[in-house]
Amino acid sequence: MSAAAVPSIDQLRELALPAPVTSYWPQTWAWLVLALILLAMLLAWGVWRYLRWRRDRYRREALARLDQLVLALDDPQRRLAALRELPQLLKRVALSMPAGEVAASLDGAAWQAFLQRHGTAPLPADFAQRLAFLAYAPAARIEALEAHDVNVLLNASRQWIEAHRVAV
User: Fold this and answer.
1) For 96-118, how does the pLDDT look when each residue is reduced to its tens digit (9 = 90+)?
2) What is residue 17's DSSP assignment?
């Protein structure tokens, strides 16, 4: 064999790629319809989430105010005002609910039943009485409340605000 017959690496060429056997574009109109349906469902879900987020604005604001009240409890100057505002906050949340006008005139057992009916977890049996106590008791008796009793009220209030059911 001669040296001229031996192939050189310089003579190698890259093979051309074959044409694609099938197109990457969907072949039937059904895929386009499916894509449009999925897009419409995604859009509807986004609108639903946005409307729900807007509807729950009162809940977010109430939780922010409750956090401010909890911080105010540490200050002896603002403790009484913060405790007196807790029943008002719950009443405002109830009034902010769709069809919440019913809650405006409720007190005592009817207020307790309303809170229990719209809550997801059981409330203390005397929750409405404790709220009335905070609203109307003399300042000296409210300031004498133990930290445990205040924490029970705050936790029950937070739980109700976060998870109450809204009938739409």
Assistant:
1) 887 777 888 888 888 888 888 88
2) P
Residues 6+ apart with CB under 8 A from 97: 58, 103, 118, 164, 166
Give me 161's structure tokens. Answer: 């605000």
Q: How far apart are alpha carbons 84 and 152 in whole angstroms?
A: 15
Closest CA to 131 of 104, 103, 150, 105: 150
| Pairwise CA distance, residues 7 & 9, whole Å | 7
Task: Look up residue 90 and give its two tokens.
Answer: 């719950």
* Residue 121 near residue 54, CB atoms below 8 Å: no
Phi-psi region of 129 (alpha: psi -120 to 50; beta: other; left: phi over 0): alpha
The per-residue pLDDT for 3 is 60
Q: How far apart are the C-alpha atoms of 44 and 72, rounded to whole Å?
A: 42
108 in Cβ contact with 128 (< 8 Å): yes
| Nearest Cα residue to 77 out of 16, 139, 19, 30 | 139
Supply the pLDDT for residue 2.
59
CA distance 68 to 85: 11
